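Cross-check.
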Amino acid sequence: MMAEPRVKQLQGLRYVVPLREGGSLPAVVETDEPGPYVVKFRGAGQGAKALIAELLAAEIAAALALPVPACAIVELGDGFGQAEPDPEIQDILRGSVGENFGLAFLPGGVVFDPVADRAAVAPDLAAAIVWFDAYITNIDRTPRNTNLLLWEGGLHLIDHGASLYFQHRWEGYEDRIHAPFPQIKEHVLLPFTGGPAIAAAGARLGAALTAGIIRRIVAAIPDAWLADEPYFAGRGLAAHRDAYAGFLLARLEAPRPFEREAIDAAGARLV
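Predicted model, tokenized:
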């Protein structure tokens, strides 16, 4: 059974430690819920659009019962993390008062290695993840940067801020809904699956993403993350949300060029 979107609203209580692996300087943060979250900050270089991509991708993955840590919108108050001595981090935190994005921290999770951890990936799961990443135009799940964690014996999907990149240029976005996505050829899990499995995943997952689910997911985007987008000036937040929902729903319409690209990419590896 597919899960319903379940984004939570939490309060950030304590800045624990920065994670310096990526350019956005996320951090482990304690909240008013047991167990810390890895929080990405609105004041970081990628800004609110990266958080929108993170939220939409995580909630779509959860709706498809794909293995993604629980996500939350994490509210930060004035003065949060003021004891952190790094001035760069302080600048980010000052620009992040309000709503930010968090994924539940997976203690002891290790980065997936496509050579050493091959036995951890079932072909059907690999196919579903390839289909999902093609759907959300995720360019950042490659052998160089898998953005997969192994935790408690299973894969978990993280770091989707580079997906849904259409939003960085709204002008003419309708004409790019079905634009080619050649980056799927670089997907780290393509060698773990095949075209028929991807086709089967598409039939199952595509049917599960109803208009109601997509619109409920999009409705969870905080208003503050949608503010100050010149393309929607004067049209309101509802028009902005409708554009996200329209993009995601249109990509699900047959014949789904992204799905065909993924199937063909898997087949090409066997030639």
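Residues 1-5 have pLDDT under 50 and may be disordered. The first strand starts at residue 8 and ends at 18. Passed to J.P. for a second look.
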